[in-house]
Design brief:
This protein is mainly alpha-helical and 422 residues long. It is built from 17 helices and no strands. The chain is globular.
Length: 422
């Protein structure tokens, strides 16, 4: 008698190709920090003004992701991804040729809009080609591309910029993303759900996309995303002065510590994605609690160099273990028309990117020291937990009303089969 071995469900290989594109996009988003001085010297602007290029990209992502989602609703996802990648590549060529700061700023904002458009559509495409059992892992793989960009892409871009000039970094991103567009064109196929969606009129598509925003569930999910991201970046943005001026670490060791943070984040993304497939809310709650505890431990041992380094790595691992679940939660709510919801979730991440560092800067300006942003991060993580508690309460009420097909309990999160909002 033979026993059949259960088939292991895997993340489709194409998801990793999309993650490699995310790697390129993430490298572009964060590489400016490493080449501020060459840009400042070449374009004859101050360092703070050059730093606004980072802000410009964040604003482009916040506004551009939802705008691109609506503009491309009738386009096949394959076409949208190819168009946005080509536009992203072309804008980096223009940036490399920019004769002035103002033109460079325009290219950064427009590139961010293209980036936001790709992010949202790639996330939707991932949920359509990946089996439901591995949605968390698949979406975590996309975020993993962003994490690896901080580990590899940004340092490599910084090296190129310092060795061959900042324009070389933009040329490199343009070439790699152009190659990615070719690979996406060669490997991506239209999924069956797209064929049914393409028959709908644009006003109908837009109504279905907006439907998910009519109840509190999606807004609670977006608030969780923004608060989590703000928590991580309120602390992360000031790790360098925390390490050198509080923990007594040498300036030369800071890049290595930040790389270790990135390794922790990558591990968190991989592990968290597996937990998200089993229990989305459990993953979100566990990650936020672990993040708050890690931040609190960092605040306690901030004056001890090696202990601070260990806690920073744990902050990276615990914080980013939530990434796949946050994305999966949005698709759980907006099952039938997820593109706009996914794009707004991308915007929520960037809202957190903007709010967190600003709050950290505010408490430092008040003279509370470089450990104060860590306290801000703890408060934001606890606030995110409070939002999740409200979301769970709403889900349980939906179960009691019989509007979802699976109960909310300790083992499994509910899966919304209605595709709409309350």
């Amino acid at each position: 008698m033979t026993t059949s071995t259960p088939t292991r469900v895997r993340v489709p290989a194409q998801v990793y190709l999309l993650a490699s594109v995310i790697f390129c996009l993430g490298t572009s988003e964060f590489m400016i920090a490493g080449i501020l001085e060459p840009i400042s010297a070449d374009l004859q602007v101050g360092i703070p003004q050059a730093g606004l290029l980072i802000t410009g990209f964040a604003v482009g992502m916040i506004v551009g992701a939802p705008a691109m989602a609506l503009l491309t609703l009738k386009l096949p996802r394959r076409a949208t991804m190819i168009i946005t990648i080509i536009a992203f590549s072309a804008l980096h060529i223009l940036a490399a040729l920019s004769p002035s700061y103002s033109i460079l700023m325009v290219t950064r904002v427009l590139a961010a809009i293209a980036c936001g458009g790709f992010w949202a559509v790639a996330a939707v495409h991932t949920t359509r080609i990946a089996p439901a059992e591995v949605h968390g892992r698949a979406l975590s793989s996309l975020v993993g591309g962003l994490t690896v960009s901080n580990l590899v892409g940004v340092p490599l871009g910084t090296w190129l910029g310092t060795q061959y000039g900042w324009r070389a970094t933009f040329w490199a991103v343009a070439i790699v993303t152009a190659l990615a567009a070719v690979l996406i064109a060669a490997t991506t196929r239209t999924s069956p759900d797209e064929r049914s969606e393409s028959s709908l009129h644009l006003p109908t598509l837009i109504r279905e996309e907006i439907q998910a925003f009519k109840g509190p569930r999606i807004w609670l999910a977006l608030a969780t995303t923004a608060l989590f991201q703000a928590s991580v970046f309120a602390a992360f943005s000031y790790f360098s002065p925390l390490l050198t001026q509080v923990a007594g670490i040498s300036h030369s060791l800071v890049p290595g510590v930040l790389a270790a943070f990135g390794i922790g984040a990558f591990i968190g993304v991989v592990v968290g994605g597996r937990f998200a497939d089993k229990n989305i809310f459990g993953n979100i709650i566990g990650s936020l609690i672990a993040l708050a505890i890690s931040l609190f431990a960092l605040w306690l041992v901030a004056g001890n160099g090696w202990a601070a380094i260990v806690m920073i790595v744990l902050v990276g691992a615990s914080g980013f273990s939530i990434a796949g679940a946050l994305n999966a939660r949005v698709f759980q709510i907006a099952t039938r028309a997820p593109t706009l919801a996914a794009s707004v979730n991308t915007s929520a991440f960037n809202v957190g990117n903007a709010i967190g560092p600003a709050l950290g800067a505010a408490v430092i300006a008040l003279g509370w020291g470089f450990t104060a942003p860590v306290v801000v991060a703890i408060v934001l993580a606890l606030a995110a937990l409070g939002v999740v508690a409200i979301a769970i309460r709403i889900e349980r009420k939906r179960v009691l009303r019989g509007t979802v097909s699976a109960p909310v309990d300790a083992d499994r999160s509910p899966v919304d089969t209605s595709g709409g909002a309350d």
